[in-house]
Predict the structure.
Amino acid sequence: MDETVIREVAQLIVEAKGRTAALTGAGISVESGIPDFRSPGGLWERFNPMEYATIDAFESDPGKVWQMLRELSRVVTEARPNPAHRALARLEELDLLSGIVTQNIDNLHQAAGSKNVIEFHGNGARLRCLLCGHMEDARAAEARFATEFPPLCPYCKVALKPDVVLFGEAIPEDAGREAMRLVQRAAVLLVVGTSALVAPASYMPIVARKMGAALVEVNLEDTMLTRDYARYVLRGKAGEILPRLVAAVEAQRSAAGPA
Ligand code: APR
C-alpha cells in the first residue's frame, strides 16, 4: 500500500471534520485471533450457518447451536483489541470519527475505547431469555457450563440465547435506525474487514455512496463494493493499514496547526 493513497485518504478524513463513519466486519478482529466467517478456515467452514446460526435452529435445538456459540465465545473471551480497533478509537478521540456500525459481536471496539459503537448484530457479552427477557453476563454464565450446558433461564428453565442476531432474526430496531442515520450523514465511510454479503448491513455502504459519501475499503480481497462503489481501496491487513492512516491524519492535523 503506497503512502500517497494513505495520505489522500487522511486528507479526506481531516477535511470531513468529523463526518467520517466506519462499517466493520469480522475481518477487523482476525488479527485479534477471532477467525472470520467466510475466509478459508472461517467459522462457516466448520459450522454450516444454515444449520447452526438460524433462530429456527436455536429454537428447535439450542444445545446444537450452543456448540457453535461456545466455540465462538471461547475465542472471543480470549481476544483483545488489535491496532485496527485502537486506530478507530483514536480517530473518534480526535473528533474525526462520528461512530462505528459493527457487524461483530466481540465487544472489541468498546474494549479499544470507542464510544459510539452501533451493534448491528448484537453483542455476545450478554445472554437473554427469549421468553421472559431475563439478561445475564455471558462470561459469568460460563462458570455454570460444567454442570448446566446450555445455560438456562433461572425462571423459565429454557436455554438462554446470546444477545446476537441469528439468521432469520431482525436487526435491533434502535441499532438499525442509528446506523442509517450515521451513514446517511457521512462524508467518508471506512468499510473495514467485511465481505459486504449480508443484508441489511451490506446496504449501509450503498446508502452512504448514494448520499455522496466517499467509500474507503480496507480489505485483503475484492468485495462486491470494490469495483463499483469504493473510491479508495486500501488492500491489506486492517491492523497494519488503519494505524498508518491515523498517523497520516495526525501528521496533517499538526501541519495544519490549531483548528
Ligand atoms: N484485514 C482486513 N480485512 C480482512 C482481514 C484483515 N486482517 N482478514 C479478513 N479480512 C476480510 C476478508 O477478506 C473478508 O472480506 O474480512 C472479510 C470478512 O468477511 P466475512 O467473514 O463474511 O465476515 P463479515 O463480512 O463480517 O460477515 C457479515 O455474516 O455470518 C454473518 O453475522 C455474521 O456479522 C457476520 C456477517
Notes: The longest strand covers residues 122-128.
